[in-house]
Design goal:
Blueprint lengths: L2 H18 L3 E5 L2 H10 L1 H4 L4 E5 L4 H4 L2 H11 L4 E5 L1 H4 L8 H6 L3 E4 L3 H10 L4 E6 L6 H14 L4 E5 L4 H11 L6 E4 L1 H7 L5 H7 L3 E3 L4 H17 L4 E3 L11 H10 E8 L3 E10 L8 H4 L16 H5 L31 H8 L3 H8 L1
Parallel strand pairs: 1-2, 1-7, 3-4, 3-5, 5-6, 7-8, 8-9
Antiparallel strand pairs: 10-11
Helix pairs in contact: 1-13, 2-17, 9-14
Length: 367
């Protein structure tokens, strides 16, 4: 964005902040937005009365310990190979991570897509290959396609342990919880490229909270913040698309149809938010042969537990910032993560660790 246009946007945001006559809190629910906001220095150019909150936008971070514990137990099962995205490898479970399971002899491999895991299954016909289905609506269509492809080709030793989640339900849960005031949402660009803007309309209707689908460039984020502040000042609560070069109101019909063919909504637990009705994606019965959860129904794991002192759940709800945590920068670092929010490149703790140095300044940003 040209410097003059950027300056004009900053001036407009300053004027809107004065007109609002109260402090405003806008939440981004996309890990890529969180990193982009830190990397661009967005917070430093906003007026003090407008603050950004980081929410549950990191799929690895919101995956609960019970799922990780099950994944570790599956990896420890003889004759099983686990395929996962790299970020999941180091996420601490209640008792161990997948990385530790691999060090102890489990066959855990990093892949870049569900299709890569299907190739693994073909190459290892005597073993069961389990892909960990992690992610929001952005990655779920790829998992759905792969499940259909495995069924079509009769690759019976390929299965998915599914923890895919959908974002609008989590946004509603944050508002319904009433723990903090959210004056607007920066809606995720990549997710919205799949689902469109229509699924957010109930947020505006039922909670009177404006939503703007934003891109990832500094200018995109400035435009989105200005659009949210404008709606607040005008007393509106609507869904706007700033990221119009990639997002349409109806989303990607082919990807949405793919999701509906393979998955159905289900209740699912989120780290920090509890169980959110209808926010998960469960493999439909037609594809049961590739639902790895049915392969390991007899596996029992101890009750999940959180690491003492870790406040990842509060961070994911926007209630606290990483410097509030007694473990941050001490026991918990990217090299030795204690909480999930420090592991992923999209995690809030990882963003704070990488892009800020002074805990005092960070806490001032929080308000």
């Amino acid at each position: 964005m040209a410097n003059e246009a950027s300056r004009q946007l900053r001036d407009e945001i300053q004027e809107l902040a004065r007109r609002a006559d109260r402090s405003l809190a806008f939440m981004e629910v996309c890990g890529t937005h969180t990193m982009a906001a830190f990397r661009s220095g967005l917070r430093s150019v906003l007026p003090p009365s407008i603050r950004l909150l980081s929410g549950p936008g990191c799929p690895v971070c919101v995956t609960d310990n019970a799922f990780i514990d099950l994944a570790v137990a599956v990896a420890d099962t003889p004759g099983v190979s686990v395929a996962t995205f790299g970020d999941m490898l180091r996420v601490p479970g209640s008792f161990a991570s997948l990385e530790q399971a691999r060090a102890a002899g489990a066959d855990v491999r990093v892949v870049y897509s569900a299709a890569d895991a299907l190739k693994m299954a073909e190459a290892l016909p005597s073993r069961r290959t389990v892909f960990l289905g992690i992610g929001f609506e952005t990655t779920a269509p790829g998992t759905a396609w792969t499940i259909e492809e495995a069924a079509r080709r009769g690759i019976a030793n390929f299965g998915v342990l599914c923890a895919h989640k959908t974002m609008p339900g989590a946004m509603a849960a944050l508002l319904a919880g009433g723990e903090l005031r959210i004056d607007g949402f920066l809606c995720p660009g990549h997710v919205s490229a799949v689902i469109g803007s229509e699924p957010y309309e109930f947020i505006c209707r039922d909670y009177a909270v404006p939503c703007v689908v934003a891109g990832f460039e500094p200018g995109d984020l400035l435009e989105a913040v200005a659009a949210l502040a404008r709606q607040v000042c005008e007393g509106r609560a609507e869904v706007e698309i700033q990221y119009s070069r990639s997002v349409q109101p109806e989303g990607n019909p082919a990807a949405r149809t793919q999701l509906e063919r393979v998955f159905e909504p289900c209740d699912v637990p989120w780290r920090g938010l509890g169980t959110i009705p209808g926010s998960g994606l469960r493999i439909r019965n037609e594809f049961r042969k590739h639902d790895a959860a049915t392969w390991f129904e007899g596996i029992e794991t101890p009750p999940p537990r959180e690491h003492p002192g870790c406040i990842c759940g509060d961070v994911l709800r926007g209630l606290r910032v990483p410097p509030d945590c007694p473990l941050f920068r001490r026991q918990c670092t990217p090299a030795s993560p204690v909480g999930a929010c420090m592991v992923s490149s999209e995690g809030t703790c990882a963003a704070y660790f990488r892009y800020t140095a002074a805990s005092r300044e960070e806490n001032n940003l929080h308000g």
